[in-house]
Amino acid sequence: MNTACREHGSALPGHSYCCWSRWVGIALFALVFVALSGSNHLLHAQAGTTGSKIEEREPEIIYLPIKDGAIAEGGPLERVLDFPAESFRAWYKDVYLNRNPKDLPKYSLENVSADIQVQGPNALIHVTYEVIPHASGWIRIPIGLQNAIIRSSVEVSPSMPVRPDRPQSGTTSGGYALWCEVPESDSGLLSPQPAETITFRVTALLPLATRGDETSLETNLPVDTKCVVKLDMPQSGANISHKGSMVVKDPTEPPPVDHSQQHLEYAGGSLGLSWRFDDQAMEEQPVNLKVKGELAVSVDVDDTVTTIAKLQVESTTIPFDSFVVEIDDDAEFIPPATPSAVYEIHPLERQGQAFGNRLLVELSEATKAPVSVTINTKQTDPVPGERGKRRFTVGQFNVLGCDIQDGRLSLTAAGNVHVTWDTPRVLREQSSRGSDGMNYRATFSYDQQPAALVLHTLPIQSTARVKTDYELHVGKLNSQLVGKLSYRLPRTYNDDLVIDLNGWSIDSVDTQGAAQWQIGEGDANQLILPLAGETGAEAMTVAPYRTIEVNIKAQREHQGEDPTEVSLPWPIPRAEPLGTATVTAIPDNDIEIRFQSEKSEGFQLDRSRSQEVELSGERGTIVLRAAPSQESLLLGLRLTPVVPRLIVGSTATVRLVEGIDHAAVTHEFTLEPFHSSPEQAVFKLPENIHFFEVTTAVINTEDVAGQRIGLGDNQTMVYSLSDLAPPYRIKLMYNSPLEEIAPGSSDYQLNLMTLESTSLIEKGIDVDFKPLELTFESSQEVDVLSETEDWRSFTMSQQGQTVQLPGDQYSQVQFSAPFLTPKTDDRVVVDFHWLQVALTPDERRDRAVFTLRTLAPHLTIQLPEGARQPEVYWNGIEQPFTSDEDRIQLEIPEHRETGRDRLEVWYKFPVGEGMKSSLIINSPTIKNSVLGTSQPGREGGYTYLQIVSPGNWLILSASGMSDEMDWSWNGGRYRRTARLTQKQLEALANTNISTVYPEGMHRSLYSTIGPVENVRVSSAKTSSLMLLFSGLALAVLLILFYLPQSRHVLVFGVAAIVAIGVAVTYPDFAVLIGEMSTLGIMLAIFGIVLYRLASYRAPVKSAVRARSSSDSQASVPVTSQSAVAGNSAVSTTSMPAAVQSSGQSR
Q1: CA distances from 54 to 6, 8, 22, 26, 32 (A)
Q2: Are the C-beta atoms of residues 951 and 878 closer than 8 Å to each other?
Q3: Where is this region: Disordered (predicted)?
């Protein structure tokens, strides 16, 4: 066994030397003890001296991650006692060293900052490098500094060995490099030092180059690294330029006096800077100041306003040493208690009326950097004005000669002072008016000076204030006023609230229980609101105010029967107005109102809000503002009777394609209501356009759904307009069938949707139709025909395919388009098709009936594959024909006058092609046939497939076709019957040839659009279905009866879910399965009943199990049944033990 020894660095064999030395030490210790025991006096003499000790020193314990007998990452730590050094070296080389990629960079430069200071003919550069190492050991880091001389040793943090690598002689690029030794980490075995930032600081001297009046420097920094360069020179007015792609950054602090600075940022590499000084330009350059202000206006008492203005002034060109500030005329400058060492402020004497109130600010030294100046002013107004108000003008701190002045003004008022202000011109209010404790604040911003704000102050102890908003409904004979008054009352206010009505009659007053209202005694022109007592919740609040909301409704009759102008005196609340009152004037639909400023007092039109309301769809509504401090208000309006109108414009684009019997129409309507608000748009729907053919309906870019109302000629499509804003732009896309006026004439009639205007006219709305612009998109020219003498089309010169039609006469448009009819004129329009398939067990006979329109002289009919013995009938008369395999060529003898002919083709199939469980059916096809529209009022293009099958067969489905079958009670059970009988189908086909089949044969009916192509018909015998489903039902019921374990709630739940799912998804098959399972259910019930009857009558027998000879000795005597029944004889026969029953019924 080998033992690892870290002290000696090798492995020693056998029991270690440490173990052998232990026994030698013990023997020597025993001999010394015996030798010293006889010399007792020597021990006493040496009592104060400590003898040397022999200690056992064990080797260090080493733990390594061991997994499957080898060192592996992530394995549990195990104590290593017997691990060969060769295995450790193999793990270190193959596992540990291969954890990191070979090409992984050993370091990364995070940031480089260079501070360059110009000192005479040289520049001193201080560079700081931030490096993150990714490997241990010696790493070489390029630092640049080409053409520079390092002045001092490199500073490193944290401390580690560093050796500069100087540039090689003869090289002109590259610069210096640093070799640093990154230590390993002591926390883990052979792991590198954690990635911590290492900072290097290098100071170097860089020579400057001079060419004329320009000075430059050239060096470099590490490439592909964020480098921040700061250049500082002890002289102002330097024009600094740089080479390459660099970003000039704004300095975080202003440069010192008589210094020029520039901050640059780039991605490393070559660094080239140059600068020059233009003394003459500096002397001629004017001073351009930039001012940013913070004005704090405080109203502590109602007769005094103080302002603290903090102005930050800086020069964008050359240094400045003074400036002049112009303040408000009635403002008094308050010198600071502690003078500033940076500036001094001196009031300037006024020289006549040409100069205002000015202050001179002198700086201690000239500078371009921002200078912060604080100016305190005070304004007083000892004598109150009208209604106890005082007026102040604040906010003017204009630095003369300065073009850029912006800032903010904040207004603060004491809780016992009420402050209002006029709407400023330069200032813009930023914060909403509100209260914060005892102070009332507002904030404004300005971008130029002088900026003035007019304030009105009033003591708040006995003042009631009110905020009013009105809604005025103006009619021909009277006006109705809805007012919302929000009172703000001091807690000590107990007077009644009074409103001067000025001729308005009160309809209702709602105070929400805060006050009662009454008309003043002896003065019906006043509304008095006695205040009610405070509620418990209001009394517990500490707010200095209480708020009362009052809603009033009043009306006033106009003078005269049909006035054209009205003057409305305005009700005035006897309270201090809180802000500007807003009046929204809404006219009735039959009048139009105009604001008359010359006949109004205290009102002003708010044009911006009026335009917003107009754009929102409220036509004719205007918004007014009432002056808050006006004693009396008078509103003058001009009334103009108007008739509600609806202007309807429309454009339609009709797309015609050769060979298609319908047109794709894109119809756009524009409804512009004037003094009317239609709730819905109603469009007439022509009879030959089905509602589902209106594929798209868009109103104002929103998809909407319409509702069809009525049938036939009276059907309409209704679209709601209640939630939309006018004008209404309606876009309808639909398909309109093309009806040929006469066969072969190439003249067609197109039906278009039109606006239903009858209901609008009945409501008194004048509907004005603009001409319809109808555009045809087709490969050839279209000639629009006039319907009557009043109906004319006007071709537009810009587009030859666009015509203008009268806006109310275009429901039917007739036009000529010869290109829509093929030149060969051999189209066959099939309006109706009926295919009858009669099946017997061995034979099949088909009958195909077509109702068609054609001008072709002959027809080519393709029969299904395998058809034999065809017969052809044209309009009920058998016709000769020529045949080539499965193709028939028929010469048409004559056409009906109506243009609708009938073709019948009878054919058979070979014997053996009769009834099958799976059958493929195809109908005969006519060459050049297209789907038609059938007769007027009848839906066309339909195909009916009728299958006549034997009575013992049941047709299950026909792929790709719609089921035309219903379940009906017939003959004591539900039977599937066709929705159309034989006579009804013959009547639809308008045929005089009738076929009769026995009543015992089944008749199945299916429908589709177009020909019958590769339709797979699935069928089955009734007896097979009965056997299948009845057998399944019988087996399931017997299993449930004989296996009680199957009668579980989960089984019944799954069965119920499956049954309901089948019934909902396939209701027809559900009924069929139920019918076919009846016999099995009845047999199962009958068998269960017989079993129960038999089990009641049969005696109960015990089950006896067989025994071996060894079991007979363990038999137990059992009393015979005769003894149990009361027989006196006692049986001594040993009976076998009865086998215990499982407890389950059989």
Answers
A1: 22, 20, 10, 10, 13
A2: no
A3: 1108-1146
* Assigned token pair, 189: 């075995």
Q: What does the pLDDT read at residue 692?
A: 83
Q: What stretch of H or E contains 1053?
A: helix 1049-1065
> What is the C-alpha to C-alpha distance for residues 143 and 128, in angstroms, rounded to an integer?
10
Question: Which residues 6+ apart lie within 8 Å of 400 measured at CB?
Answer: 323, 324, 325, 326, 358
Token pair belonging to 902:
């009938």
Q: Are residues 474 and 325 in the same domain?
A: no
- Enter the pTM of the model: 0.33
- In degrees rounded to 5, what are phi and psi of residue 308? -115, 110
Same domain? For 291 and 271 the reply is no
321-354 burial: b if 16+ Cβ within 10 Å, else e: eebebbbbebbebeeeeeeeeebebeeeeeeeee
User: What residue type is assigned to position 97 of the chain?
Assistant: L
1050, part of any domain = yes
Domain closes at, from 820, 848, 874: 820
Kindly state whether residue 596 falls inside one of the protein's structural domains.
yes
Same domain, 654 and 760: yes
Spatial separation of the C-alpha atoms in residues 491 and 257, rounded to whole Å: 60
Rounded to an integer, what distance in angstroms lies between the CA atom of residue 965 and that of residue 981? 11
Cα torsion angle, 38, 43, 44, 45, sign: positive
Q: Which domain holds residue 567?
A: 465-534+551-641
Q: What is the DSSP letter of 743?
A: T
CB-CB contact of 685 with 731 (8 Å): no
In terms of domains, do 810 and 899 share one? no
Q: Are 741 and 899 in contact (CB under 8 A)?
A: no
Are 457 and 302 a contacting pair, CB within 8 Å? yes
pLDDT digits (tens, 9 = 90+) for 1009-1058: 888 888 999 888 877 877 888 888 888 888 888 888 777 888 787 878 88
Is 495 within a domain?
Answer: yes
Indicate if the alpha-carbon torsion angle 187, 188, 190, 193 is positive or negative.
Answer: negative
* Cα first-last separation, the chain: 77
DSSP track, 633-675: -EEEEEEEE---EEEEEEEEEEE--TT-SEEEEEEEEEEEEES
| Nearest Cα to Cα of residue 887 among 858, 916, 912, 914 | 858
Look up residue 707 and give its two tokens.
């509702």
Looking up tokens 């792609």 gives 245
Taking only the tens place, the pLDDT of each residue in 829-863 is 888 899 999 998 889 999 999 988 888 888 999 99
The residue out of 800, 820, 840 marking a domain boundary is 820
195 within some domain: yes
Q: In 10 A of CB 911, how many CB atoms?
A: 10
| Segment among 15-24, 295-304, 1119-1128 with least mean pLDDT | 1119-1128
Specify whether 978 is located in the same domain as 845: yes
User: For position 992, which CATH number holds?
Assistant: 2.60.40
**Total domains, the chain:** 7
Interval 502-527: pLDDT, tens: 889 999 898 877 666 766 555 568 88
Contact 574, 462 (CB under 8 A): no
**β-sheet bridge partners, residue 671:** 648, 728
Region for residue 1086 given its phi and psi (left: phi exceeds 0; alpha: psi -120 to 50; beta: otherwise) = alpha
Are 316 and 344 in a shared domain?
A: yes
For residue 687, the one-letter residue type is E
Residue 405's contacts (CB-CB under 8 Å, 6 or more residues apart) are 290, 291, 292, 293, 398, 399, 446, 447, 448, 449
Same domain, 942 and 1000: yes
Q: Are residues 864 and 961 in the same domain?
A: yes
Instruction: Kindly report the CATH number assigned to the domain that includes residue 113.
Output: 2.60.40.1730
Output the DSSP codes for 110-179. Answer: EEEEEEEEEETTEEEEEEEEEEEESS-EEEEEEEE-TT-EE-SPPEEES---EEEEPPPTT--S--EEEE
